Amino acid sequence: MKAVILVGGQATRLRPLTTNTPKAMAPILNTPFLEHVFRHLHRHRVSDIILAQHHLAGPIEDYLGDGSRFGVRVTYVIEDSPRGTAGAIKNVEKYLDETFLVLNGDIFTDLDITAMVDLHRQRGAVATIALTPVEDPTAYGLIETDVRGRVMRFLEKPDWSQVTTNMINAGTYVLAPEVLARILPEQKVSIERETFPLLVDSDEPVYAYPSSGYWMDMGTPEKYLQLHRDLLGGRSTWHSLASPEEVRTGERCTIHPTAQIKGPAVIGDDCSIGPGVKLVGPVVVGGGCTIGEGSVVEDSVLWWQVSLGERVVVKNSAVANDCRLDSDSLVEGSVLGNNVTVAAGSRLETGSRCEPGATV
Ligand code: GTP
């Protein structure tokens, strides 16, 4: 089976992490997001993956290559202008001749793709939309179904008096190739707002596949950090640690005997953790990081080659590649893009966002 993954968006809400890193390459537990997705698809016997790209396309191909490391074949297609979620699928039409999958490139999920495809076939659907429950349905587009799961209505951001379901579009679809004929070529088209409502209004069989598996749209820094807390806390059936206390350490790390590490924690290769350092999980330390004497890192994600001086405190934050936090600085509730320098003694408190290359 083939899958189209939509990875061409601007990822504005996840900036500054994604100012110069594609959202699809943001590390999740030290592994680029798309690699997790590739492994999930491979488990469900997807053999061919088409990446629909636009913004920041290069680094994705550099890392994934032809896909053979992950047991799949990859085709890269770059849109000359952003086509939206349906236009991007139309743009790769020549690669699609049978039932195929479509995935938003920012959803981390345990979804049982095999069962979803089975349901699509049993129902004779032209489109099947995975659904996931949410606590506050008023912030989303809701999908109402009949008892057999046939989609009856889309409700965009309803107020509480209109809420009849808490199920939202989970960003994974199974589509019959006929759907491609319903998308105008060379145009920006949204599958959620245009193509699916068009199919339902034309009485085409569109079905829903409700899933209670783990699901997270990692489109904002808050959700990106929450995804890490969830995975480290064992809330996904895959990629969770063996126990909530586990400390998984990479190769060639130097950890001073007086450092204290409280799991859950994942530490990449080639890290140096100095005397008296405290790592308080959930925490992820990327490969090649250096953490100086007496520093504390708690409930945070550090990407690669981050360097912390002495007595630095990082809490509830995400810090991207190659940042340098000098001694006695504090970074709390903040998000730092690549290559940010935090000067000695500086304090970045809740809500700070630093664009790549900044010195603060
Ligand atoms: P924001 O700018 O933060 O809203 O993020 P985004 O650009 O990723 O948009 P959104 O979260 O709505 O997109 C959902 C998925 O569709 C993401 O995986 C995007 O990469 C992808 N996507 C959105 N627009 C396009 C597009 O025009 N072309 C392609 N190929 N993919 C798109």
Question: What's the arrangement of secondary structure elements?
Answer:
Elements: E1 2-6, E2 27-28, E3 31-32, H1 33-43, E4 48-53, H2 58-64, E5 73-78, H3 84-90, E6 100-104, E7 107-109, H4 113-123, E8 127-133, E9 141-145, E10 151-156, E11 167-175, H5 191-201, E12 206-210, E13 215-217, H6 221-232, E14 247-249, E15 254-255, E16 260-262, E17 265-267, E18 272-273, E19 278-285, E20 290-291, E21 296-302, E22 307-308, E23 313-315, E24 318-319, E25 324-325, E26 330-332, E27 335-336, E28 341-342, E29 347-348, E30 353-354
Parallel strand pairs: 1-4, 1-6, 4-5, 8-12, 14-17, 15-18, 16-19, 17-19, 18-20, 19-21, 20-22, 21-23, 21-24, 22-25, 23-26, 24-27, 25-28, 26-29, 27-30
Antiparallel strand pairs: 2-3, 6-11, 7-13, 8-11, 9-10
Helix pairs in contact: 3-5
The structure holds guanosine-5'-triphosphate.
